[in-house]
Write a structure and sequence with these properties.
Residues 3-90 form the 1-deoxy-D-xylulose 5-phosphate reductoisomerase N-terminal domain. It holds the Pfam family DXP_redisom_C. Pathway: Isoprenoid biosynthesis; isopentenyl diphosphate biosynthesis via DXP pathway; isopentenyl diphosphate from 1-deoxy-D-xylulose 5-phosphate: step 1/6. Belongs to the DXR family. The protein has 252 residues and is α/β, with parallel strands linked by helices. Helix content is 38%, strand content 19%. It has 10 helices and 9 strands. It has helices at 2-10, 21-33, 45-48, 66-74, 84-101, 110-119, 152-155, 165-172, 175-188, 226-233, and strands at residues 15-17, 37-39, 53-58, 76-81, 104-107, 127-134, 195-199, 205-211, 216-220. Strands 7-6-8-9 form a 4-stranded mixed sheet, with helices on one face. A 3-stranded parallel sheet has the order 3-4-5, with helices on both faces. Strands 1-2 form a two-stranded parallel sheet. Helix 2 (21-33) links the parallel strand 1 (15-17) and strand 2 (37-39). The protein is globular.
């Protein structure tokens, strides 16, 4: 909660929702002192937003993110979703809601944002293969014997990304990549047989598309989520973001 508190101050936020009742009661006074209104459930958003806003990003982890995402679609011109559980379990509901409210949707996970960018305005029939990359996690190339002594703290040390504990564990055993393939199939409605996974330890290339005319396109960027987030917000505008210099060695 204190991280949210500091972010609210830094970004001059006027309204905050804290679902946990105990933490809401414990920290509410701190927000109020800074003239920040505190609500206790997502339904209160109706009191905050009176007309459609330009962009909402939904990144609540787990299936608990589905309900607030459905609500966000009602009052957003564009919704960015970084929550694979909601998409996997509730895509049909989300899709209907998006269509009904004429709300644009952009996937935020780096692989799905890359696919979205590469096949936007492309005839899906021309797609021969879609490859999602996976780093292989912290135990890639480790001897089988050495895995007997690993501990949870070792499994959450992802070599490239800074992530939460659950997704780090899922990345270690490749379950996260399986979920991402399911998510991609839901979003893009492309035959699951066309999806493949490629181990790419550098995590610099996020998706590769092979077309039936022989062309291959891929999207690469630094291992930082600020890039897909930034581009999902400004995808119709020419905006600049600070990023590392292009390092061609990572392609080798």
């Amino acid at each position: 909660v204190m991280k949210i508190y500091q972010q609210a101050i830094d970004l001059k936020v006027k309204n905050v929702i804290i679902i946990n009742k105990k933490k809401n009661l414990k920290y509410k006074h701190k927000f109020i002192k800074k003239k920040i209104k505190v609500f206790h459930d997502h339904s209160k958003i109706k009191k905050i937003i009176k007309k459609k806003i330009d962009y909402t990003m939904c990144s609540i982890s787990g299936l608990s993110g589905l309900k607030p995402t459905l609500g966000a679609i009602n009052y957003s011109k564009t919704v960015g979703i970084a929550n694979k559980e909601s998409i996997i379990c509730g895509w049909n509901i989300l899709k209907k809601k998006l269509k009904k409210n004429k709300t644009n949707f952009i996937p935020i996970d780096s692989e799905h944002f890359s696919i979205w960018s590469l096949i936007n305005n492309v005839n899906k029939a021309s797609i021969e293969e879609i490859i999602l990359t996976a780093s292989g996690g912290p135990f890639l190339n480790k001897a089988t014997k050495s895995l007997r002594n690993i501990k949870p703290k070792d499994a959450i040390k992802h070599p490239n990304w800074s992530m939460g504990k659950k997704i780090s564990i899922d990345s270690t055993n490749l379950m996260n990549k399986v979920l991402e393939v399911i998510e991609a199939q839901r979003i893009f409605n492309i035959d699951k047989k066309k999806f493949k996974i490629l181990i790419h330890p550098k995590s610099y290339i996020h998706a590769i598309i092979k077309f039936n005319n022989g062309l291959v396109k891929f999207l690469a960027h630094d291992t930082h989520m600020k890039i897909p987030i930034f581009n999902s917000i400004y995808f119709k505008k020419n905006k600049k973001i600070q990023s590392k210099q292009l390092n061609l060695k990572v392609f080798n």
